[in-house]
Write a structure and sequence with these properties.
Two copies of one chain form a homodimer. With about 180 residues, the first copy, chain A, is an all-alpha fold. Helices cover about 75% and strands about 0% of the residues of chain A. Chain A has helices at about 1-5, 15-20, 25-30, 35-55, 60-80, 85-95, 100-125, 135-155, 160-170. The structure holds a DNA duplex (30 and 30 nucleotides).
Chain lengths: ~180, ~180
DNA sequence: ATAAGTTTAGACCGAACGTTACAAACTAAC
DNA sequence: GTTAGTTTGTAACGTTCGGTCTAAACTTAT
């Protein structure tokens, strides 16, 4: 949560020791280093994201899956009093200032979301839920970019109502 | 440029002394402190933004003004080899972790862009360029959010082609 | 009960942080 | 040429940074 909210360099060892209630000896014994723990956190976030996307994919309707995604997005953005946003989106902003290993985790996580959108659109087209006019690649990018802006602006710029306007417009893409 | 690209805390005094080719004595004499210079940089960016918006507003057609905004956005994002993105958008992501003075500069700058969109839409409706179905408030937010995602994803996630897809869709709002 | 292995606390490390102090080096005015 | 005022380079400040080391405190197995 600390890394998620404050990022890597703004999170200090002192912060981590506070929140874990560990002393240095125990921390380094348990986690290796600050960077190791950060990678663990990123990896866990990636896994959680994949689980969520898989659960959505398992829904009966692909357009319902996308709609549910955005409903959850707004709900979690609104209810999070810490205003952490999305760990992956937060990282994406400054992606180039991290090393290759970290970059690849973040990019992979982001890509999994865009791919989820693309697959849902493709499936929706096959099933006749979504018009053949809707390009899976293009519209996956449009949905993804909407998620990005909701996550960014949800961290202290836009209120719930404004965020809902963004989500509504995104959903109109696949209707 | 340093603050723009790396943010406040990831920019060190050593970085600033390097790039200004000053020594500590001269730096503090010239700028007061790291934070003072940061505020100067933010303020200047706000002014530059306002000038740009005013120039666009002076164009003969409001819908052309919006279109030109997005053309410039893509162009500057693509041509910037530093991948700095937009200073204001970069700040917006972590807006709540800064003090009130800094927050207010950033919010004011962001608001001026959204207001520009709103005013252009209102003017376009009056002139019959833009349909009366297009809500100025809602669509200003949609255009603003598109600008945000282009700026975020332009910093190392999306290529030019993908960014253009986002811009195209935004412009369809006012067509 | 004792030995082996693990976990803990906390002193300590060198480096980097932003900032201050101050004297030397300049510049300008008369 | 002397003086007053500014600008410069540099040493030093206290703090925080992430990380290491070690010895004491615990667990566990026999």
């Amino acid at each position: 949560n600390l890394f998620w909210r404050k990022g890597y360099s703004d999170t200090s060892m002192a912060d981590l020791l506070d929140v874990t209630a560990l002393t240095k000896g125990s921390f380094y014994n348990a986690f290796g280093s600050k960077r190791d723990l950060f990678i663990q956190a990123l990896t866990r976030y990636e896994q959680d994201t994949r689980v969520m996307l898989q659960e959505l994919s398992a829904l009966d309707s692909p357009s319902t899956a996308i709609q549910t995604f955005f409903e959850g997005l707004i709900a979690s953005t609104t209810s999070d009093t810490d205003k952490k946003g999305c760990f992956t989106v937060n990282m994406l902003l400054c992606i180039t200032s991290y090393d290759e290993e970290i970059q690849s985790i973040v990019r992979r996580t982001a890509q999994s979301v865009e791919t989820f959108f693309k697959q849902m659109i493709e499936l929706g087209r096959v099933r006749g839920e979504i018009s053949e006019d809707v390009s899976p690649e293009k519209n996956a990018k449009l949905l993804f970019s909407t998620m990005v802006s909701i996550r960014v602006l949800g961290r202290g710029t836009y209120d719930t109502k404004s965020l809902e306007i963004l989500a509504e417009r995104a959903l109109r893409l696949i209707k």
